[in-house]
Amino acid sequence: MITMVTDPFVTSRTERKVGLGLPLLKAAAEACNGSLSISSEEGNGTTVEVRFQLSHIDRMPLGDLVDTLLTLEVGTPEVHWIFWIRKDGKEFYFDDQDLKRELGDLPLCNPEVIRYLRSIFSEGINALELI
After folding, report:
1. pLDDT tens series, the chain, 131 aa
2. With b meaning 16 or more CB within 10 Å and e meaning fewer, what string describes 42-73?
3. Which of 15, 94, 104, 106 has its CA at a distance of 20 to 30 angstroms from the CA of residue 56?
């Protein structure tokens, strides 16, 4: 499946819904001298690494990365997320494992938790000066 996951006509879903997230992400990265790589180990997890040349004229706007990270984190609490974004020697790294352990039964969708995550993501992304 790893070798086919970026093919827009391949899916593991049994429903009619088809996702184009990875194929579109790969196309966006490759359009600006970037790349997408995926590694996976059954029972251990999957890593998706995407590289973009930020200065490339064909790079699409990054959009709201803070809201994107927040949506991924809060919308899929069963996933162990690690966000690692690097630019020019600066980096933002966030691993949700300790946070989830500290929260215990408090859900990620709790307004206080969302405010906290938004502040962490905003501070980290803004420090990178991506734009």
Report:
1. 666 666 666 666 666 555 667 888 888 899 999 998 888 888 888 888 889 998 899 888 878 999 999 999 999 999 999 999 999 999 999 999 999 999 999 999 999 999 999 999 999 999 998 86
2. eeeeeeeeeebeeeeeebeeeeebbeebbeeb
3. 94
43 backbone dihedrals φ, ψ, rounded to 5°: 80, -5
Instruction: Tell me which residue has tokens 């803070």.
Output: 66
pTM reported for the whole predicted model? 0.77
Cα-based distances in Å from 79 to 15, 44, 55: 21, 12, 32
Q: What is the DSSP string of 2-70?
A: TTTTT-TT----SSS----HHHHHHHHHHTTT-EEEEEEETTTEEEEEEE--TT-TTPPP---HHHHHH
Q: Identity (one letter) of the amino acid at 54?
A: L
